[in-house]
Specification:
The complex is a heterodimer of chains A (189) and B (172). Chain A has nine helices and two strands. Chain A has 189 residues and is mainly alpha-helical. In chain A, α2 packs across α6, α4 packs antiparallel against α9 and α6 packs antiparallel against α7. Chain B is globular. In chain B, α7 packs antiparallel against α8. Chain B has 172 residues and is mainly α. Chain B has a domain of 93 residues. Classes of the chains: A mainly alpha (189), B mainly alpha (172). At the A-B interface, α2, α3, α4, β1 and α5 of A face α1, α2, α3, α4 and α5 of B.
Chain lengths: 189, 172
């Protein structure tokens, strides 16, 4: 059993690196075309004056969700839900949010911002993220024993939480996202 | 192919494109698109240059091994893809101070870089604390309907909106 599992993980890790590069190039290209590599667009979203970021994210989620769940139903793909806890996601999320507003980029868009020529991202932001993640790695053993495991709920997905068929959540969620985007446009945002 | 040289596309076209990209990422690489672990690994690799092999033994780097992986290539690809897009449309420019920042806080690039550094520290720390960022939780996690990702992304925006108000309405 053990060896089988090992073979499976090594196989997984060997996922050809070149595909990572290809997907990254497409992702970066799209982010730049959407304006998400720009401080002004991201801060505009957080100041609630420019809803570009939310429009990109929600249409990606809508499209991605329907496709991924269709392929899951067909047995073509499996899901990789991340385990979570109250201490991990709420507190970490709020710390991230503070950094998001102070920096004006996030870890993915900062890579795009660097490609777009933003030197505040390259010189300030990137160095900061490397310090911040290094700091977390140093404190990880202590945090992991304490606050990160507070209120653990595991790798739940909404369909498993409600104990229903996937599509009972996917379809209403798709409708909800669509209506929200429609409302944003109607409101002129 | 004229659309490739346009400065910007509709956010919906971009979003749908990212959604379709995620299908291929699941199908071909069996991985969701995510970014922030790469920064933690890069940080560890830099630390390793100075402190040597004992860095590998840190519990966090036992969990996230310090080797070049798929996600690092993805993040590198983002830099290249964005550069290609910006060069094609003529939107590439070296900029120290973004304009919304400049309108409120002026053109001092040292100030902007220091603030970006501090913001980066919070962002990197928070991303690893929450175990994901705007890509891993915000797009890939939410589209899988993961509970931890929906909670995280809501908190990203609550923290971000409140902090942005504080910076631009109270300080600025």
């Amino acid at each position: 059993m053990n060896t089988k599992k090992e073979i499976k993980t090594t196989k997984k890790d060997k996922s050809p690196l070149v595909w990572g590069l290809v997907f990254g190039i497409v992702f970066g290209f799209l982010l730049q075309k959407g304006g998400a590599t720009k401080y002004d667009v991201i801060i505009g979203q957080l100041l609630l004056t420019d809803f570009t970021v939310l429009k990109i994210m929600l249409s990606a989620v809508l499209t991605g969700m329907i496709g991924i769940y269709a392929m899951k139903t067909l047995g073509w793909v499996e899901l990789y839900p991340k385990a979570g806890s109250v201490g991990k996601n709420i507190i970490g999320g709020l710390i991230f949010g503070i950094g998001f507003a102070v920096l004006g980029y996030c870890p993915g868009t900062i890579a795009g911002a660097i490609g777009n020529g933003y030197l505040d991202a390259l010189v300030g932001g990137l160095a900061g993220i490397l310090i911040g993640t290094g700091l977390f790695a140093a404190l990880y053993p202590r945090l992991n024993r304490g606050i990160l495991s507070k209120g653990n709920f595991g790798d739940l997905t909404l369909p498993r939480l409600f104990k229903v068929n996937d599509w009972v959540v996917v379809i209403p969620m798709a409708v909800l996202i669509f209506l929200f985007l429609y409302w944003l446009e109607r409101a002129g945002l | 192919m004229q659309f490739l040289t346009e400065t910007s596309w509709s956010p919906y076209a971009v979003g749908i494109g990212i959604g379709i990209l995620s299908w291929f990422s699941f199908l071909i690489s069996r991985k969701p698109i995510a970014c922030s672990t790469t920064f933690a690994k890069t940080s560890g690799m830099i630390e390793k240059l100075f402190r040597g092999k004992k860095v590998d033994l840190k519990p966090y780097y036992q969990k996230e091994k310090l080797v070049l992986d798929w996600q690092m290539m993805l993040v590198l690809g983002i830099v290249i893809g964005s550069l290609i897009s910006a060069l094609l449309s003529g939107d590439f420019q070296w900029t120290w101070v973004p304009s919304i920042w400049a309108t409120t806080f002026g053109m001092n690039s040292l100030l902007r870089v220091i603030v970006a550094l501090v913001g980066g520290i919070f962002l990197g720390f928070g991303a690893r604390w929450a175990d994901g960022c705007t890509s891993g939780h915000g797009i890939s996690g939410t589209l899988q309907l993961t509970v931890s990702s929906w909670i995280s992304v809501i908190c990203f925006f609550i923290g971000g909106v409140l902090m942005a108000q504080f910076i631009f309405k109270l300080i600025g």
